[in-house]
Amino acid sequence: MADNEKKIIIFDDDEDILAICSYILEEDGWQVTAFPDCNNLIDHISTIKPDVILMDNWIPDEGGIVATQLIKATKSLQHIPVVYFSANSDIETLAATAKADMYLPKPFDLDKLKEILTKALTIS
User: Fold this and answer.
1) Max CA-CA distance within the chain?
2) Phi then psi for 122, rounded to 5 degrees?
3) Which residue among 12, 14, 78, 81 is least packed, with the fewest CB closer than 10 Å?
């Protein structure tokens, strides 16, 4: 792994989304770690120290809102940008409630995904 490689954690229970995002982002130079649930959330993030977190709304077990609020309430992790993503029509409200830094509606264009992650890197 190169020192300048960007790290991302994706939390999503949809295996297709995890596979597609992982493949695309790895091709784009990211080191991707994916989880289908939020078990041991703080431990995972503390160990991996990602540059960005991509958080699904419907993630087991706590759900994206609670998981994101937990990240943002943890002093050592709150600086990490969280991009909230969901097919829910009120994603903007959900992201604000969760205290996410940005949001990305599903389904999304892969170029839009790369664009929002690049933007997220500038706020960390």
Assistant:
1) 38
2) -80, -15
3) 78
Domains and CATH numbers, the chain: 19-121 (3.40.50.2300)
Q: Is the model's pLDDT at 1 over the cut of 60?
A: no
At residue 6, what are phi and psi to the nearest 5 degrees? -85, 140
d(CA 49, CA 102): 19
> What number of CA atoms fall less than 13 Å from residue 85's CA on the CB side?
26
Supply 95's token pair.
């992201």
CB 65 within 8 A of CB 98: yes
Residue length, the chain?
Answer: 124
State mean pLDDT over 98-110: 94
Query: Distance between CA atoms of 62 and 78, rounded to whole angstroms?
Result: 18
Q: How confident is the model at residue 123 (pLDDT cuts 50, 70, 90)?
A: confident
- Contact yes or no for 63/57 (Cβ under 8 A): yes
CA-closest candidate to residue 101, choices 122, 75, 74: 122
Residue 28 has pLDDT above 80, yes or no: yes
